From TrEMBL:
Keywords for the protein's UniProt record, in alphabetical order: Cell membrane, Glycoprotein, Leucine-rich repeat, Membrane, Receptor, Repeat, Signal, Transmembrane, Transmembrane helix
Domain Leucine-rich repeat-containing N-terminal plant-type per the UniProt entry, residue ranges: 39-64
Membrane topology of the entry: Single-pass membrane protein
Signal sequence coordinates: 1-24
Organism listed in the record: Rosa chinensis
InterPro entries recorded: Leu-rich_rpt, Leu-rich_rpt_typical-subtyp, LRR_dom_sf, LRR_N_plant-typ
Protein name: Putative leucine-rich repeat domain, L domain-containing protein
GO annotation, cellular component aspect: plasma membrane
SMART domains the UniProt entry points to: LRR_SD22, LRR_TYP
Membrane-spanning intervals of the chain: 688-709
Pfam families reported for this sequence: LRR_1, LRR_8, LRRNT_2
Cell location: Cell membrane; Membrane
Homology family: Belongs to the RLP family.
Amino acid sequence: MPLQPNYLTPYAIIFIFFISSVDCRSTACNKLDQDSLWSSFNMPSSPLNWSSDDCCQWEGITCDMSGRVARVSLPSKGLKGYIFSSSSLRNLTHLTHLNLSHNSLTGSLDQTGFFLSLSHLEILDLSYNFLSGELPFSLSSVNIRMLDLSSNHFHGAIPSSFFQQAWNLTSFNVSNNTFAGSIPSSICTRSYPLIRLLDFSFNKFNGSISGGIGECSKLEVLRAGYNNLSGILPDDIYSASALEEIVLPHNSIYGSISERVVNLTNLRILDLYSNELSGALPTSIGKLSKLQFMLLHFNNLEGYLPPSLMNCTSIVELNLVRNHLEGNISTLNFSKLGQLTKLDLGINYFTGILPLSLYSCKSLKAIRLSKNDLEGQIQPEIRSLKLLSFLSLSYTRLTNVTRAIQILMGCKRLRALLLSSSFHLAENFPADYGMVDFDGFQNLQFLDLANCELMGQIPIWLSKLKKLEVLELGYNRITGSIPSWLGNLPKLFYLGLYFNQLSGEFPKEICRLPSLVSDQSTDQVDDYLELPIYESRNTIFVQYTLSYFPRGIEIQNNTITGSLPIEIGELQLLQILSISGNNFSGNIPEEISNLKNLEELDLSMNHFSGTIPQSLAALTFLKSFNASYNDFEGQIPIGTQLQSFSASAFEGNPKLCGAPLPNHCLPINDNDADKNSQYMESEKKIDWFHISVALGFITGFLGVFGPLYNQAWRYAYFNFLDNLWNRLYSLYC
């Protein structure tokens, strides 16, 4: 059957024309609103292209049926200036939605009467600008539902009257400003039953969290982290049964977590890390069946992990690092936690063996059990964790390091392996036998086997780790020479071989490490690790990501001989060079001045001779320098940064003179030259005898008492002890 052509009756055409005419007229932009918009936003640098005669057709503008501007949505448009300083914006009296987020707006809201005129406003988003000043006395709009002032420069206290008319407020975000004073207690009265989100994070609020939170019956998200809050958690917070997030990290909140927390059956995130919480975890915490993130690290929690915790089957991340928790961890059954991706129980007092039930958590990507009293061996079942990329078992009591490495090579996605201070039976370093043809560790970026009393030589299988960025092998008994092939590892930017028994010369191939030569020689550091790396410094834990890990070569306290190669100057990205306590000799190469990023340089306790290069003045980032106990001579370069270091950085060099040393450089005549040379040679011999005593203090009586008879020896001796002690307690976990 042939298709019939579509056609409209004359009446239909007239009707459509009438509707179109009415619609056109009803949406025509109000002249006052158009002028107000033009005056407010059409700045010389404005990127907006508002060319139409009808402002309702302009980008980001929506009008109501009467042609009045109802919505202005101009996020991320490059807007700049003081748009709130004029009265123009206040003329948009029908405005319900205003979004000017992610621009560069400046000025204040408290002096403009901005809120007073916009009584119909429902949504206001001014986040990510440069607005400043204090908040006005109150919000005049009873219709306001969402207010986002985050990431600006607002300051002062939030007036308790600010919310007095905000009957319909559901979301209030003032995070990342510099607000101070207390969090307003009036925000959660029965007048505001609709509030769902409160975010006060990253400000300077102080005092305790006032009671009344429990009266916000629909509150789902409470965030106030990174402030100066103190006191205990208000008891009525456990009555806010709709709560899904409690996020209050980095404050000084103390006391315990009440057993009443199990009333919060909708809770998904409990984030209270880095506070001063104490007491035991609630015994019935397993009733929180929806809990996904439990972040309570860096507190003072104590007692045992409640067995009911294993009933939190939705948990994704469990972090209890650095508390005072105890108990036999191997008695816990982790097998129910099928969603668990990150487990961090490090730096506690747990005992037992590595729990086999962990290997049933197939989603696990990161495990840290370091600094606990755990023992045993790594079992082959760990290879069933196909997603595992981070494993830290440092400061435990493991055995059979070779088998452990062989097993862990089967974890194909492993990127960080930290086993420092975990093996204490003087085992051999896992040798090449059975590993030369391996294909494991192909994604490994961080390998830490420091302080494991490992013996033998550095094995060649390490040369296959093409993604390795950090290699920590300090405090072992490794012998032989430093392999030249280390210089071929394309990603390596930190090499720690300190306090071993290495000998031979420093290979110049190390000076060609691509990641230390040039930013362009290799890709940027792949920074992401599932968990941060902690370094303990005098009871303070410093947190590292790979991109902030120092670029360095630390080979101090070995028996390396020969000269420092001139190729050292190629390592332009090097930040730390520590070669003290070796048998280096010869002059310091002038090329060392090419290390423009060098922050720490330790040449002490070697046999370097000649003058200290004047070119060291070019190392403007140098924060730490030590050239003591060598055979340098002549004047310390004048007018350089070297004068800012103490005299102890230069002592033990009898031929060295000038500031900061107390002995001035005086000219000597030729007749006295031979006599002075003989005297200096005698002094040098005596000095090196005492240095050798200081270095060998652990071998007998003279190592302890000999240096105490001479001030210079005492300094070298105790400085050596301090460095050894600090280094031992600054290993990673």
